[in-house]
Structure formats: structure tokens, C-alpha cells
Amino acid sequence: MKNQKSILSPQERRQRNREEMRHAILEAARQVMREEGVAALNLQEVARRVGVRAPSLYEYFPGKMALYDALFRMGVRLYAERMNHFTESTDSFWERAQAGLENYMAFAQQYPELYQLVQERPVPGFVPSEESMEQSRRLLTMTDAIVEKGIERGSVALGITVAQARDLFLAMMHGLTALHMANEPDLPVGSGRFGSLLPAALTLFRAAWEPEPSQTQDEHTEKE
């Protein structure tokens, strides 16, 4: 017998339709932000693009700030997926650091509207919900875990705290990406005035944090 598709109950159909409409609204909002600017999100234009009247949007999002909040969480989730991918692909601290620099800039290019919403403050009055901030804080926890593992394995010797090292790395990563996006957003990662500086940035961090060979040997001897 051929497999038959399961028949959805009326409640399941309503839920599916609701989820599809929420997705359509989010995608339309992203398009508007890309075209008009993140802070210029207009609910009437979003409604027009999904084929409903503006008041109907409130059945899915209580207001514009709630829509921004959902988009913020989408950005955090998509970036977290990138982080998970490159952290699972290698155990090398410095390969992860390189991937982190490159993926941050690649994320900004692929999702410029979500990058701005998550990593900058383009919308006056928008404050992410506690749920959204908790998801964002998990990204910092993931980064701290990478640094701590690097220290444990002798790949890194910091003269500052883990939190300070993480924030310094984030500042370099965001600074280069922000300048790249402001000046040459269409050039690929690794090229252009600021994109081409990613290898140099990694070299600076390695010069500052990579243990001296003698220091690494001493640490291995103590463990033995």
C-alpha cells in the first residue's frame, strides 16, 4: 500500500496556517527592513505584502516591538546555528577563532537586517524581551566555553579574564565587520579594505595569547 498523508484535524490545520502566516509576516518584515532600513519597518507595508489589512497583523504580533522581538530571536537563532557548525567542525581553538571572524562577517552579509537588529541599536525604543536576551546570552556562554577549552588544552595563555578576552575578540570582530558593511558590503569575506584584515586580526590575537613553546612544554610536564 502506498503511504497516505495523515489528515490534519481542524485544530492542526489552523495551527499550521497560523505558523505559515507568522513566517510570511517575518519574511515580509525582513524585506521591508532591507529596502527601507531596520528602523523604518512599516506595519501597513508588511500587511500589504502578505495580503492582509494592517489590523490583522495584531492577531500574530501584539505590535511593532513584538515583531522586532521575534526578528531579534530569529537572528540570534541563525547566528547560533553558524556557531554550532564551526565549533563542531574542529577542536582547534585557533581554527575556531578564524571561523568566528569569518562567519560573523558572512552572517552580516547574508542577513544584514538581522545582523543590525541583533548586534547594533538601530531601532529607537526597542528593547529585546527577557526571553530574547536569555537566548542572546547563550551565545556569550558558548564563546566563553571555547576560550575556556582553549586554556584547558594549552592553546591560549591569557593575561586577562575569560570575559575580557571574549569581549576584546567580539570588539575586533564587530569593528571590522561594521566597517566592511559600511564601506564595501558587496565584497566577499576576506576582501576589501577591512575584510582583508581578518587574517591580520587573528595574527594579533595569536601573538598576544598563544603560549610560548617553553611555557606549553612546562604545562605538559606539570600535568605528567
Say what the CATH topology of the largest domain is. Answer: Tetracycline Repressor, domain 2
Number of strands: 0
Low-confidence stretches: 218-224
The CATH fourth-level homologous superfamily of the largest domain: Tetracycline Repressor, domain 2
What share of residues is helical?
Answer: over 70%
Structure description:
This protein is mainly alpha-helical. The protein has 2 domains: 8-61, Orthogonal Bundle (Arc Repressor Mutant, subunit A), CATH 1.10.10; 72-223, Tetracycline Repressor, domain 2. The chain contains 10 helices and no strands. Helix 3 packs across helix 5 (112-119), helix 4 (93-110) runs parallel beside helix 7 (162-183) and helix 6 (130-152) crosses helix 7. The longest helix has 27 residues, at 10-36. The chain is elongated, with a radius of gyration of 22 Å. The N and C termini lie far apart (64 Å). Residues 218-224 have low confidence and may be disordered.
Topology:
Layout lengths: L9 H27 L6 H8 L13 H26 L3 H18 L1 H8 L10 H23 L9 H22 L8 H4 L2 H12 L3 H11 L1
Task: State the main characteristics.
mainly alpha, Tetracycline Repressor, domain 2, 2 domains, 10 helices, 71% helix
Q: Care to give the gist of this entry?
A:
The chain has helices at residues 10-36, 43-50, 64-89, 93-110, 112-119, 130-152, 162-183, 192-195, 198-209, 213-223.
